[in-house]
Amino acid sequence: MEPLSSLQIFGLILYQLLPVWIGLIIIFAASIATKTKTGLYGKLFDSPIGMVGFTLVMFWVLTALFGDMIMTHDPLQQISGMKNKLPGTPTEGAETADFQWYLLGGDNLARDVFSRVVAGSRIVLKIAPLATLFAFMVGITLGLPAGYYGGKRDTFLSFLANLILAFPVILLFYLLVTPEIVETGLPKYMAAVLFLFPIIFLVVLWQSRFYTQPQKRNLFVALTVLIGGWIYLGIAWNADPIGIISMQANILIVFVAVVFVNSPTVFRIIRGLTMDIKTRDYVAAAQTRGEGPWYIMLWEILPNARGPLIVDFCLRIGYTTILLGTLGFFGLGLESESPDWGSTINAGRRLLAIYAHPALPPALSLMSLVLGLNLLADGLREQSLRD
Amino acid sequence: MGSFIFKRFGVMALTALCLTFIVFYLTNLYPNLEKLAKTQGNMRMTDEQVTSWLGNRGYSQNTFKKYGEWLGVVPSFKTVTEDGTVISRCTRAGMAPEDIPSYCGIIQANWGYSTVFKEEVWSIVTKRLGLTSWLMFAVLCVMVPMALIVGILAGMREGSRTDRTLSTFSIVTTATPEYVSGVIFIVLFASSQIGLSPLLSDWGLMSGKTLFKGSATSAMADITFANFTLPVMALALYGMGYIARMTRASMAEVMTAQYIRTARLKGVSFKNVVLKHALRNALIAPFTVIILQIPWLLTGVVIVETLFNYKGFGWALVQAAQNNDIELLLGISVIAVIVVLVTQLISDIGYVFLNPRIRVS
């Protein structure tokens, strides 16, 4: 069979991504139709920058979601004779039922670059948003009291945050993610501590709000402890009694490292916002009403800080994606055959001047996802400042 | 002011102590020591041999005691072997046994001995830091003016077409980490197969094979335009977006101030308003950002030096970390933490000097 021309490659990639295009059209049609009713999200569709960002982000979310339909080959399968082959090369020895070409060529281990990029988006989108969410939970739970009470507590927590921030990120990664450290179980204990924070956060959230209605509070707290505890056991200790939730050991380590690096920055942001907001009149009103400190922090200050926090959340997912890429680039954490973008760039960079096609697609993918998130954040900021 | 700086130095010393202790603790965990013993001694050592190797060299002592030795407040561990040679972290080749000092730590200006490079940590650190400072210097020379120009042009007329284009440009640069822009640059400019170089040599516009070099190894001896441009650009591009956005925000804020309106109403031309009235006030905030960007560049340097094979500070960090070279890693951490803390101090003090409305108390 003949190799494909550039135009044919382009057309076939567009065709492979068909589920993504359909998904994007449906999401856009639905969002624009209900735009007046959905608040800040609807207003996003008034800003061209926000819309471009949203499209890029949704593109990758849908690609990750429909990955199985989009991938043309198994991302880990090596087909002999396809090593470093250029984009559009017909697959060697393909059956009639198989996909006939390597759309973006083969890498140095004769795997399909296109499928690996798609599979990589899954790994990134599985870890980055969740890790950012956890970092926010840690940052909020510690940052609110530090900003609200001030004093010794604040000095101590700020010192810890600055201590972590004074580490060069890569040194920290090397110290936490190497196999020798993993052997000591240290990342596991860190996971055990860090993953407790979401549960603590939710329990305090319900307690502070509903302590006057014990029935409701008991229900919420019980649900949180039950479901949260189940997920906690599964993720942090790999000891889910039912055996549904588990996390691969090396993904857990990467996850912990990324949460650990992100939390101090979130802590500083929340602390700053809290110190600013606690001087407002509605906080004084709540204090006069006799509300407890945690009620004020979680139900008065936090909702009023949501604007900057949502924007920072988007930016931080992008930053987390970059950090994940950095980890992959240094070959830390994930196994070397993992299709995540950082590892693929790392594998492709050695032959970069001769074969550009294995390293370039993951690099551009990472950039486009981060760009999408940054533009989305910019659009959200613009729209939230408008009112 | 004096007590402020004094207090800051106290916090700095405490941070440095805590940080180096964490590094010390993590590198001295048993699996790491075992790896060190096997790479230094023999890959096929038995467990007993590993234990005795570590024991002879004082690695199996209490972590706090070892940390004290490294600091130079506790006398160093010594073993005298049967043939009379003394094994101690103070021993160096050609030293008579009676000359070996009992204290040798950071306080005695002894940074230790690198197990990977077989060289004094201090000489490695200074040599590598020298190489990296050239890179950093070049990056700052490119990044700061570029970022300020982009930020000022974008911020002086908020919402204009120039503003939108330049703001989008700075967002794109913040979304391109060094390892992505490095890869794109190498493909575009440093490959003889694809990108610009084959085109240019076909047209006869270029004598060499590629426009720029994809490796900066030769820049360690002799910095040229061809071998240094790509690493510098990769670093500068990622860093500049953030500074440009801060400058833009600060400039846009200043341009709405009352005194700018007064100046405009007085009939001062737009050019003069920007250059004489707005610029000075708009540059206070970016100053802090630029200074604080320096420790952040240190992380970028590690990536760029690895990608472009420039054997500087970042490259040494990676080598030390991969081989668990404890004393070199500690030396590097000390330098890194000093850079972070000193830049923070400079940014705080500089901010006060630039902005007379703020006083340190």
Q: Can you give the mean pLDDT of chain A? A: 88
Q: Total number of β-strand segments of chain A?
A: 2
Share of helix of chain B, binned: 55-70%
Listing every helix as H and every strand as E from the N terminus to the C terminus, the arrangement of chain A reads HHHHHEEHHHHHHHHHHHHH
Strand content of chain A: under 5%
Q: Which secondary structure elements does this structure contain, and how are they paired or packed?
A:
The complex is a heterodimer of chains A (387) and B (361).
Chain A: H1 6-16, H2 18-33, H3 40-43, H4 48-65, H5 67-70, E1 89-90, E2 101-102, H6 113-149, H7 151-166, H8 169-177, H9 179-184, H10 186-194, H11 196-210, H12 214-236, H13 249-277, H14 281-289, H15 293-304, H16 306-329, H17 341-348, H18 360-386
Antiparallel strand pairs in A: 1-2
Helix pairs in contact in A: 2-4, 4-6, 4-18, 6-7, 6-11, 6-13, 6-16, 7-13, 8-13, 10-13, 11-12, 11-15, 13-16, 14-15, 16-17, 16-18, 17-18
Chain B: H1 2-27, H2 30-40, H3 47-56, H4 63-71, E1 78-80, E2 86-88, E3 113-114, E4 119-120, H5 121-156, H6 161-174, H7 178-189, H8 196-202, H9 225-255, H10 258-266, H11 270-282, H12 284-308, H13 313-322, H14 326-354
Antiparallel strand pairs in B: 1-2, 3-4
Report on this model:
- The complex is a heterodimer of chains A (387) and B (361).
- With 387 residues, chain A is mainly α.
- Chain A contains 18 helices and two strands.
- Chain A has helices at residues 6-16, 18-33, 40-43, 48-65, 67-70, 113-149, 151-166, 169-177, 179-184, 186-194, 196-210, 214-236, 249-277, 281-289, 293-304, 306-329, 341-348, 360-386; strands spanning 89-90, 101-102.
- A two-stranded antiparallel sheet of chain A has the order 1-2.
- In chain A, α6 (113-149) packs antiparallel against α7 (151-166) and α7 crosses α13 (249-277).
- Chain A is globular and about 80 Å long.
- Chain B has 361 residues and is mainly alpha-helical.
- In chain B, α1 packs antiparallel against α14 (326-354) and α6 (161-174) packs across α9 (225-255).
- The longest helix of chain B is centred in the middle third of the chain and has 36 residues, at 121-156.
- Chain B folds into two domains: 2-99, no CATH class; 121-354, MetI-like fold (Orthogonal Bundle).
- Chain B has helices spanning 2-27, 30-40, 47-56, 63-71, 121-156, 161-174, 178-189, 196-202, 225-255, 258-266, 270-282, 284-308, 313-322, 326-354; strands at 78-80, 86-88, 113-114, 119-120.
- In chain B, the strands form two sheets. Chain B has a two-stranded antiparallel sheet. Chain B has a two-stranded antiparallel sheet with strand order 3-4.
- The mean pLDDT of chain B is 84.
- At the A-B interface, α7, α8, α9, α16 and α17 of A face α1, α2, α6, α7 and α12 of B.
